[in-house]
Design a protein that fits this description.
- Helices cover 25% and strands 31% of the residues.
- The protein is an alpha+beta fold.
- The longest helix has 18 residues, at 167-184.
- It is elongated, with a radius of gyration of 25 Å.
- The two termini are 40 Å apart.
- It binds adenosine-5'-triphosphate and magnesium ion.
Length: 379
């Protein structure tokens, strides 16, 4: 197995499109690293560059310490599962699995052994004589994975390997891939645009937008401390709520927005922590699970405000409330219960400590700013 190290990797296509604007990161030996971002952000380009299928315009790529910039794909000892994989329709599963190894001229017995082992791991042993058209989507997907597996490469590169599957099968295959990764202890780079897949599979996640790396961290750190508005809005479903406005300290701390003022703390004075943000134009972020309907025993330190309840979405184990504060749409995620009718006012509360604070101009997280004195003392 191997490490993969990227130093300032850039890819500019012939038409001038900057697809990757300088990627710097190292994938540790045995790590499952996820590249995530919206369509067109450069994920496939970056993966193909690592595989050697795409030349790079600047920077260097190392596999196990060796610069591979000028090595052909087959000399890099990687196996890639493509976004639009295709199995050979006229070959059986066994032949599909064996094909790459045959091309390399491996001995017959060695090929048979590897094919049997991969089939066993992926639950394909019973299907080795079947042709692809007889297989379900999930089974075909496993054959595509198997073709990479039999290569026993130093590094696995997976480009949206589950994108052709329905939701249930995706969830099942996600677990299969996580298991496979644990069993093989293989170095894997996994590309997806699905933030749930990224969060559940990745040991670390690289968030890309428009060719630029936004943040690299563990799933929970990305969720708890997003570096900027893009990451904050991209990870999490329903997405984080945002309130844009100016922070005022007098007579009490609040956010002054276009549609009224949002109280920030009605019980304790947060000026110790917020001093640097006084009168600053900011965007406050609040996750849907941190926005609650006011109940009888509301903590005094929670900030409270009114919003219009527009649409209620029950999803079984929880309820999404779609609300509006002036012209700002918001979502609250609450436990099932009896609710006020749509179109009525709802009294909401939140723990100001839960707020994320971003600079309104740059969109960057403002570090060290917390709203509640508890952050300064009890933590
Ligand atoms: N051969 C090419 N020539 C010019 N531009 C290209 C080429 N291939 C891709 N691009 C552009 O580079 C950008 C990144 O493309 P890429 O395929 O890497 O995105 P992606 O993140 O994999 O997207 P998706 O999630 O849709 O697969 C896109 O804007 C795309 O249009
Ligand atoms: Mg792609």
């Amino acid at each position: 197995m191997a490490t993969v190290r990227l130093d300032n990797v850039r890819k500019v296509y012939d038409n001038g499109k900057v697809a990757v604007a300088g990627a710097d990161f190292t994938v540790a030996d045995g790590e499952l690293l996820v590249l995530v971002g919206p369509s067109g952000c450069g994920k496939t380009t970056l993966l193909r560059a690592i595989a050697g299928l795409e030349s790079i315009s600047a920077g260097s790529i190392r596999i196990d310490g060796r610069v591979v910039n000028d090595l052909a794909p087959r000399e890099r000892d990687i196996a890639m599962v493509f976004q639009n994989y295709a199995l050979y329709p006229h070959m059986t599963v066994a032949e599909n699995l064996a094909f790459g190894l045959k091309l390399r001229g491996l001995p017959r017995a060695e090929i048979a052994g590897r094919v049997a082992e991969a089939a066993r791991m992926l639950g394909l042993s019973e299907l080795l004589d079947a042709r692809p058209r007889r297989l379900s989507g999930g089974q075909r997907q496993r054959v595509a994975l198997g073709r990479a597996l039999v290569r026993e490469p130093k590094v696995f590169l997976l480009d949206e390997p589950l994108s052709n599957l329905d939701a249930k099968l995706r969830a099942a295959m996600r677990v299969e891939i996580a298991r496979l990764h644990q069993r093989l202890a293989a170095t894997m780079i996994y590309v997806t645009h699905d933030q749930v897949e990224a969060m559940t599979l990745g040991q670390r996640i690289v968030v890309l937008n428009d060719g630029e790396i936004q943040q690299i961290d563990t799933p929970m750190r990305l969720y708890d401390e997003p570096a900027n508005l893009f990451v904050a809005g991209f990870l999490g479903s329903p997405a984080m709520n945002f309130f844009r406005g100016r922070l005022r300290a007098e007579p009490a701390w609040r956010l002054e927005t276009d549609c009224g003022s949002l109280p920030l703390d009605d019980a304790a004075d947060p000026s110790v922590r917020l001093g640097t943000c006084r009168d600053r134009e900011v965007v406050l972020g609040l996750r849907p699970e941190h926005l609650q309907l006011v109940a009888g025993d509301a903590p005094a330190s929670f900030a409270k405000f009114d919003a219009t309840l527009e649409v209620v979405e029950p999803v079984g184990n929880e309820i999404f409330l779609n609300l509006r504060f002036g012209n700002v749409p918001m979502v609250a995620r609450i436990a099932p219960r009896a609710l006020p009718a749509s179109g009525t006012h709802a009294r909401l509360q939140f723990d100001p400590w839960r707020l994320h604070v971003f600079d309104a101009g740059s969109g960057e997280r403002i570090e060290g700013v917390r709203f509640h004195p508890r952050a300064a003392t009890a933590r």
